[in-house]
């Protein structure tokens, strides 16, 4: 299915409960997916799990990515990502099967940070669950910048590329991660989380043709200037569930989850999935099932009739 963000259409998948009946209303959940992912990957895993537990679950491709509209392609614009979640809520409110008083959100990885931002300023979202949440601005500012020397140098490099693009020159899109395990090895990458990301996104394990592994160059400056958790203390009044993997790694989603826990005035539960790494929370059945069941328990309480 598709829905509009007032400029172009966004492509989504609506996961419906078993035994779905059009004459009933259900609680609903918007799923905000990780950076570079598409709806058929992590969003589908969580969407199916939540639908199995009685929710209408909407996963969608962000604008400029996947099968959604928008140009330039492969843009990762945090402001647009956040606004897309609000448009997804708009869409859910138009469905007769959705109880508008029982709409929640789930954000995964960078989508967790985006969902935090959206929930702060859209209180139609009555409860928020995050899974391995990442503040993508923090992640990009903290990333290894040895090739350019500093975050400021990265921002300046985007400016140089913008000038080149304005003059009609072609500018390469950046890779999120190596395209293959062989390329990762050639780059000398030994970090377990990066290797796990490549195995998920770039092999048959989680590969999808609509996930390009590229981001338009202006995305980097946008993410470097973004803070997903800004104003949480003041505006995130809805109930919050945080889920993290117990195996610490270089995505720092555990520490981002803790930072969110400490800031949020209505955080209800901090759940650790023991033994799980960040990317195993995307598709490893026993870990996904634990996360979905934790979300279900939370939503049963906070999206109650």
Q: Can you tag this structure with a few keywords?
A:
305 residues; alpha/beta; 10 strands; 41% helix; 18% strand
Account of the 3D structure:
The protein has 305 residues and is α/β, with parallel strands linked by helices. The chain is built from 12 helices and 10 strands. It has helices at 39-52, 78-93, 110-121, 136-142, 151-166, 181-186, 192-202, 219-224, 232-235, 253-263, 280-283, 285-302; strands spanning 2-4, 9-15, 26-32, 56-60, 98-108, 127-131, 174-175, 214-215, 240-245, 267-273. Strands 1-2-4-3-5-6-9-10 form an 8-stranded mixed β-sheet, with helices on both faces. Helix 10 links the parallel strand 9 (240-245) and strand 10 (267-273). Helix 1 crosses helix 12 and helix 2 (78-93) crosses helix 3. The chain is globular. The mean pLDDT is 96.
Helices and strands, with pairings:
Layout: E1 2-4, E2 9-15, E3 26-32, H1 39-52, E4 56-60, H2 78-93, E5 98-108, H3 110-121, E6 127-131, H4 136-142, H5 151-166, E7 174-175, H6 181-186, H7 192-202, E8 214-215, H8 219-224, H9 232-235, E9 240-245, H10 253-263, E10 267-273, H11 280-283, H12 285-302
Helix pairs in contact: 1-12, 2-3
Strand content: 15-25%
Secondary-structure-derived class: alpha/beta
Largest sheet: 8 strands, mixed
| Total strand segments | 10
Q: Overall pLDDT, averaged?
A: 96
Q: Which residues sit in consecutive blocks of at least 5 with pLDDT less than 50?
A: none
Widest sheet: strand ordering: 1-2-4-3-5-6-9-10
Discrete helix count: 12
What is the subunit organization of this protein? single chain
Order of helices and strands: EEEHEHEHEHHEHHEHHEHEHH
Using the alpha-carbon principal axes, give the shape.
Answer: globular
How far apart are the first and last residues' alpha carbons, in Å?
Answer: 28 Å
Helix content: 40-55%
Q: Report the C-alpha radius of gyration, rounded.
A: 19 Å
């Amino acid at each position: 299915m598709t829905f509009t963000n007032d400029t172009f259409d966004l492509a989504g998948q609506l996961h419906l409960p078993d035994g779905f009946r059009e004459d009933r209303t259900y609680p609903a959940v918007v799923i905000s997916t990780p950076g570079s992912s598409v709806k058929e990957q992590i969003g589908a895993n969580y969407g199916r799990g939540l639908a199995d537990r009685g929710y209408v679950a909407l996963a969608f491709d962000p604008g400029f990515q996947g099968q959604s509209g928008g140009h330039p392609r492969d843009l990762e614009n945090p402001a647009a990502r956040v606004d897309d979640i609000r448009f997804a809520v708009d869409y859910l409110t138009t469905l007769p099967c959705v109880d508008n008083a029982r709409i929640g959100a789930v954000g995964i990885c960078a989508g967790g940070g985006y969902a935090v931002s959206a929930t702060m300023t859209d209180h139609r979202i009555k409860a928020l669950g995050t899974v391995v949440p990442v503040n993508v601005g923090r992640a990009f500012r903290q990333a290894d910048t040895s090739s350019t020397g500093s975050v400021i140098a990265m921002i300046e490099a985007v400016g140089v590329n913008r000038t080149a693009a304005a003059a009609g020159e072609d500018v390469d899109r950046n890779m999120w991660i190596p395209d293959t395990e062989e390329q990762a090895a050639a780059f000398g990458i030994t970090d377990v989380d990066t290797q796990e990301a490549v195995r998920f996104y770039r092999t048959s394990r989680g590969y999808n043709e609509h996930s390009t592994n590229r981001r338009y160059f202006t995305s980097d400056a946008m993410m470097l200037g973004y803070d997903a958790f800004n104003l949480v203390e003041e505006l995130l009044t809805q109930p919050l569930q945080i889920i993290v993997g117990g195996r610490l790694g270089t995505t720092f989603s555990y520490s981002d989850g803790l930072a969110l826990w400490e800031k949020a005035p209505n955080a209800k539960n901090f759940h650790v999935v023991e033994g799980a790494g960040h990317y195993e929370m995307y598709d490893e059945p026993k870990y996904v099932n634990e996360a979905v069941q934790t979300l279900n328990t939370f939503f049963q309480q906070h999206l109650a009739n």
